Amino acid sequence: MLLDLHHVQLAMPEGQEDVARAFYGGALGLPEVEKPAALQGRGGVWFETGALRLHLGVEAPFTPARKAHPAFRTGDLADAVRRLKAAGLVVRDGGALPGLVRVYVDDPFGNRIEILETR
What we know:
The strands form 2 sheets. A 4-stranded mixed sheet has the order 1-4-3-2, with helices on one face. The chain is globular and about 40 Å long. The termini are far apart. It is of the alpha/beta class. 18% of the residues lie in helices and 36% in strands. It has one domain: 2,3-Dihydroxybiphenyl 1,2-Dioxygenase, domain 1, CATH 3.10.180. This is Catechol 2,3-dioxygenase-like lactoylglutathione lyase family enzyme. InterPro entries: Glyas_Bleomycin-R_OHBP_Dase, Glyas_Fos-R_dOase_dom, VOC_core. Keywords: Dioxygenase, Lyase, Oxidoreductase. Pfam families: Glyoxalase. GO terms for molecular function: dioxygenase activity; lyase activity.
């Protein structure tokens, strides 16, 4: 019935698109893509690279996702952690699980983000 995951959507507060761009585009290095014209008036911002698609949509009232979260895979977790810390972000150890190591960071809105490396 299901084929694959098309995208993940996270909520963000209204009017914070530039803050989202600085974190997701700057700190995480995700390229921004233009939203379809029919959705541009709703606010938010979209990022895509390869098969990874992340959409941020405006939600009012806004409440950050503290437990539910996307998990992004990297090929070099140590380098990702260095880059995140250099951007002034607090990186929390997520502990190792069989076949992976992981960390957590919060986006500027308080949404939990997991970054992991498979081993």
